[in-house]
Design brief:
mainly alpha, two-stranded antiparallel ribbon, about 5% strand, globular
C-alpha cells in the first residue's frame, strides 16, 4: 500500500478515536455511564424520563394515519431480515470455517438497548428495537461480505464507489497485477484464524 494511503488511514483512525471520546463525553451530559455492559443512569434520571414519556393512547391519536396504515409494510420486512440473519450465520459456519477466516461477531453489530429508555412508550420501544436490529444486521452482513471480498478479490474498483466498507482502503489498486500477486496472501492472513493450518 502506498504511504499516502497509510497516512490517510492513520488520520482516519485518529478521527474515529476523537469521535469516540466525544461520544463518551456526551454520556456525562445525559447522566449515564456503562457498567458491566449495562447502561446506568444517575439517580432521579429515570423518574424524569418517565415523566416525559408520551402515553400510548396520546401517541396513537397524534400519529398520522398514513404511518399507521403502512406499519404492516414496515414490519413485514422482519421475515426477510430474519431469513438473512439465519443465512449469514450458516454462511459463516460453513464458508468461514472452510476458509479458516475469523467469524464476525454478530453481537458487535446488533445492539438492542433502546427499550430500556423510560421516556419511550411501548410502540416507540418496539420501533427502536426493530431499527436497531435491521441496521445492526445490515452492518453485520456488510462486514461478513467485506471479509469475503478481502479473501477472494481484494481489488479496488476502477471508479469511485459510494460507501465503501472499512477494509476497502487496504485493497490492491485496480490494474496492479504485481500487487495482487504479491499481497493477496497477506490480505487473507489478516482475516484468518491462527488455529488453522
Amino acid at each position: 500500500m502506498n504511504e499516502k494511503i497509510d497516512e490517510l488511514l492513520a488520520r482516519l483512525g485518529k478521527l474515529e478515536d476523537e469521535f469516540e471520546r466525544e461520544f463518551e463525553a456526551g454520556r456525562a451530559n445525559f447522566n449515564y455511564g456503562i457498567s458491566q455492559g449495562r447502561v446506568v443512569f444517575e439517580q432521579g434520571i429515570t423518574a424524569e424520563h418517565r415523566r416525559l414519556k408520551v402515553g400510548l393512547i396520546r401517541f396513537l391519536k397524534n400519529s398520522p394515519i398514513g404511518t399507521l396504515v403502512i406499519a404492516p409494510f414496515v414490519y413485514g420486512l422482519i421475515l426477510p431480515l430474519l431469513f438473512l440473519d439465519a443465512s449469514i450465520w450458516l454462511y459463516q459456519k460453513v464458508c468461514f470455517s472452510i476458509w479458516g477466516l475469523v467469524a464476525v461477531r454478530r453481537s458487535d453489530y446488533v445492539v438492542i438497548d433502546r427499550h430500556h429508555l423510560a421516556y419511550l412508550n411501548s410502540i416507540q420501544k418496539l420501533n427502536c428495537d426493530y431499527c436497531s436490529y435491521a441496521n445492526g444486521l445490515i452492518a453485520y452482513v456488510r462486514e461478513v461480505a467485506a471479509r469475503t471480498e478481502q479473501f477472494w478479490c481484494p481489488i479496488k474498483h476502477a471508479v469511485r464507489t459510494k460507501g465503501a466498507h472499512g477494509r476497502y482502503a487496504q485493497f490492491i489498486d485496480y490494474g496492479d497485477a504485481e500487487g495482487f500477486k504479491d499481497r493477496l496472501e497477506e490480505l487473507r492472513k489478516e482475516i484468518s484464524r491462527s488455529d488453522v493450518p
